[in-house]
Design goal:
Blueprint: E1 5-11, E2 20-21, H1 33-45, E3 52-62, E4 65-74, E5 90-97, H2 107-118, E6 120-123, E7 132-133
Parallel strand pairs: 3-6
Antiparallel strand pairs: 1-2, 1-5, 3-4, 6-7
Length: 136
């Protein structure tokens, strides 16, 4: 996030293709969530992340997959993120108003933006109806 805008990139060649999201991926063996978030940001967007804050967790059933997603907000200072050619995960990108992002959003990103706007930190699978407001 920067100045009321969120950096998003359009996914290419993976589940959720053509949706808008951000850096992410799976944990490597023995890796912490924070290490994973920093590694993926560097590999996919070429930015080094400083301080991290957990934004939300989501139990997602979409794209013929079922997974737990943990979203972070990370400090990148004045670095300019850009999809890395060697990674090839994204095809278009930019800064977009938080309340008017491009569509369609990758489901984890849709839920992350919902958390930013509502303060909710947990998103159960569709139809479960359990929500937990932020306590901070």
């Amino acid at each position: 996030m920067r100045g009321g805008k969120v950096f998003l990139a359009q996914r290419k060649g993976a589940h959720g293709e053509a949706t808008w999201g951000s850096a992410g991926g799976h944990l490597e063996f023995g890796e912490t969530l924070e290490q994973c978030a920093r590694r993926e940001a560097l590999e996919e967007l070429g930015v080094e992340v400083g301080e991290l804050r957990v934004l939300c967790m989501s139990n997602i059933v979409a794209y013929d997959r079922h997974y737990m997603d943990v979203e972070f907000l990370g400090d990148i200072g004045d670095q300019d993120p850009a999809p890395q050619a060697s990674d090839g995960s994204f095809c278009d990108y930019g800064w977009f108003p938080l309340r008017e992002p491009p569509q369609p959003l990758f489901e984890p990103m849709r839920l992350a933006i919902a958390s930013l706007l509502s303060g909710d930190w947990y998103h159960p699978p569709a139809g479960e109806g359990t929500r937990a407001p932020r306590s901070d």
